Amino acid sequence: MNLKQKSSVIALLLATLVSAVISAEPAATAGKTPNPDGKVAQPPAGVRISIQGNSWSVRNDFVAALAKEAGIQGQIDFSKEAKQRLEKGEIDVVTFGMHWWGSEERNRIAAVTTELGLKHNPNFRFYYQAAWLVGDGKAGNPSAGKWMENKDYDNTKIDELQAATDEARKSLEGFVDGLNKTHGKRIVFIVPVGDAIVKLRALIVAGKFPGVKRQSEVFGGDAMPHLGGLGISLQADCHFSAIYRIPPPAPAPLPEGADQAKKDAYAQQEILRQIAWETVSKYPYAGIANTK
Fold first, then answer.
1. For residue 287, with 0-12 CB atoms within 10 Å meaning exposed, 13-18 middle and 19 or more buried, which class applies?
2. Using one digit for the tens of pLDDT, what is the confidence trace for 242-265?
3. Is residue 99 a contact partner of residue 131, using CB atoms and an 8 Å limit?
4. DSSP-derived secondary structure letter, 250
5. Sequence-ordered list of residues with C-beta below 8 angstroms from that of 198, at least 6 positions apart, any chain
6. Which residues contact 91 (CB under 8 A, 6 or more apart)?
7. Domain membership flag for residue 109
8. Does some domain include residue 291?
9. Among 55, 62, 78, 280, which residue has the fewest nearby CB atoms (within 10 Å)?
């Protein structure tokens, strides 16, 4: 890549860096479930991070809330002046979340970001979000002769969805392997949000997720689909687990006399956090489980 190309990619990187949240060195916590009191014995220190991407990115306010619940202090939002902060070694983690996985431009952004970040910070890390699939990996809704509508997600077969998610994720894994080989060590990781979303939808189909009957309730109502409240929470749980390397904290205890709706909401959050930790802690590319 010549200097002109690098300058162009850095400009695009700065245009898409949007907010900040998380990170710490790995902790030996694989296999643990969320703690009853919502905190680990020795919470990692919060560090400096920028979230890169578009509306597919994890929401920093959700991850920041999880960090606070877990007793993590010192988390800093460095969403502004990203290039200058990278050059000063002031950003420890960049996360990348978009609705497309296989773009040449995306790959150039990652290459330039990791090169710049690692040059000035030997502990720099880059996280790809392996997202849920637009249209569940389908071109559209052939039976209706149009693109999928939100309600069409209710008809998706879980095994087919998992197969499509596996295929997309494996292509991303190959690219990540190449980047890590270039740098001579693992600095690029993957957050398997798409797999966690599949697990949530499987529970809904099986009638095992309280208060929810349709797969489409995971999303926000559009056709792409963007995430709704449940999906946003699960996405944040996954990013928290992957970058901090600890289980998400337990939800705040229910008050006495809580009605059924509040009990369902509490149970939902417990399940989402369990899904996130189970998915992330067992996935080698997330950086917690052992790799080959």
1. buried
2. 999 999 999 888 888 888 888 899
3. yes
4. P
5. 132, 158, 161, 162, 165
6. 48, 49, 50, 78, 82, 85, 117, 121, 124
7. yes
8. no
9. 55
- d(Cα 127, Cα 35) in Å, to the nearest integer? 25
Q: What is the DSSP letter of 141?
A: B
Highest mean pLDDT among 17-31, 122-136, 138-152: 122-136
Domain that holds residue 114: 3-286
CA R_g for the chain = 19
Residues 52-61: tens digit of each pLDDT: 888 999 998 8
Q: Is residue 292 part of a domain?
A: no
Residues 6 or more apart whose CB falls under 8 angstroms from that of 240 comprise 22, 63, 66, 67, 70, 248, 276
CATH number (domain holding residue 63): 3.40.50
Question: How many domains are contained in the chain?
Answer: 1
For residue 186, the Cα-to-chain-centroid distance in whole angstroms is 18
Among residues 252, 254, 264, 263, which one has the least CA distance to residue 213?
264
pTM of the model: 0.84
Place of tokens 């950003």: 91
The tokens for 230 are 């449940």
β-strand pairing of 93-97 with 76-77: unpaired
- The separation between CA 199 and the C-alpha centre of its own chain, rounded to angstroms, equals 15
